[in-house]
Amino acid sequence: MAEYWEVLDAKGNKTGRLHARGRPMAKGEYHLTVCVWIVNAKGQFLLSKRTANKSCPNMWECTGGSAVAGDDSLTTAIKEVREELGLVLKPENGVLLKRLRVGPDVYREGGEWVDIWLFRQEAELASLVFEPEETCAAMWASKEEIDRMVEEGGFATWNLFSSVEELF
């Protein structure tokens, strides 16, 4: 079954149109995505590893994904983490840090509005359940460890940042 996104304009407003995922977006069209950073009491961030069959294979990342039609940003953040890691986030633990516009660029006509979420929540790595088509591992990492991974090319930043500090 096709997945549909709500089309947003260059200011992030809904246009009332839907777009089928997988098709190129037209010039001036955007859709909503989320990046979900989860931090524990030690100041470490929960990272997931992308499976080998995805773009940016075997790279580490914060959990994220695209909002489907009818879902808002918070709903999408909670849903993506549950689907990819089996972790149920508590809405009251999250805060929307910022919204960034990405694209259009040389590779595409349309773009994305990316909501960056921060959740303060604990999780046991052994209790996580990976979505086999999406994730294959998880780890807790400090800002310094993440920045090192970014520098070495092992972390998918999606061109949103060059240092974790830029996000917070």
If you had to describe this structure to a student in words, what would you say it looks like?
The protein is mainly β and 168 residues long. The protein has 2 helices and 9 strands, in the order E-E-E-E-E-E-H-E-E-E-H. Strand 1 (4-8) and strand 2 (14-20) form a beta hairpin.
Mean pLDDT score: 93
Major sheet size, sense and barrel closure: 4 strands, mixed
- Helicity, as a percent range: 10-25%
Distance between the termini: 37 Å
How many helical stretches? 2
Helix-strand string: EEEEEEHEEEH
Low-confidence regions: none
Strand tally: 9
General shape:
globular
The computed structural class is mainly beta
Percentage of residues in DSSP E strands: 35-45%
> How are the strands ordered across the major sheet?
6-3-8-7
Rg over C-alpha atoms, rounded to the nearest angstrom: 16 Å
List the helices and strands and how they pair.
Blueprint: E1 4-8, E2 14-20, E3 30-39, E4 45-50, E5 60-61, E6 63-66, H1 73-85, E7 94-102, E8 111-120, E9 135-141, H2 143-152
Parallel strand pairs: 3-8
Antiparallel strand pairs: 1-2, 3-6, 4-5, 4-9, 7-8
